[in-house]
Amino acid sequence: MMGASxxxxxxxxxxxxxxxxxxxxxxxxxxxxxxxxxPQDVFHGFQLWRLITYAILPxxxxxxxxxxxxxxxPGEELEHMLGTKQFGILLLLVVVFGALLHLTLxxxxxxxxxxxxxxxxxxxxxxxxxxxxxxxxxxxxxxxQNRFILYGIAVLTIGNSLYVAMHGMASPxxxxxxxxxxLTLGLIYFHMRFQKxxxxxxxxxxxxxxxxGARAPHIEQKPASAxxxxxxxxxxxxxATAQKSVPREISxxxxxxxxxxxxxxxxxxxxxxDEKRFLSDYSGxx
Length: 286
Fold this sequence. Notes:
Helices cover about 60% and strands about 5% of the residues. The protein is mostly helical. A hairpin with a 2-residue loop joins strand 1 (about 135-140) and strand 2 (about 140-145).
């Protein structure tokens, strides 16, 4: 169990605080106008802090539930595995990327605003489910696998975007920013870095071979030697020796999957020093 000092836990506490402040009329009027992201405030007022601060504002009860699921145990486990610094940088990049995308899509609609941490939350949840598909989250007396929680959130997010687009209630791009973006970035990043699932590795392996110029191993054939004359064969005593089976050497991807399964079942602390070193070296090669 991770401590309350983790970055993931601090993010969760901040989101919960601002969620409840949003229900106080005075607090909402004082805080929201200076934190929400709008193209007008950035382009004309040069208020660049909004590129980050918009993510700490609530975007409804559903957004809070997604954040609670993502930044509790999944976020802490992912932070422990990646390291707090790298974990924080990834979340910051997702937040800033979402802000820049919003400014690009709505620079002609300066009053269209963006708020909420749905994208970084889904980024974390996708990464956790990708690495630990058998992990579970306990709700009161029921344990639900995180992948099914993710599937449900993905269906709701995409369905909501389609509904809004079909009925013309708002631009579908706005709802793409509020969920679909985090799902997409999480899948792309964690698959490119950890390459866990074999059926998805075709394009990545092809690109690696193209960049590195790796060639298929060539088996050299020894030239056939000329027949030599032999004398009358002498009887030879053959001593039977025990044949030891040579264990098959597993690939890095197979070893990575074994380590990730072990983390999923027993947590990161159960790894040996050699396994942690391999995980660090493997991540550094990508």
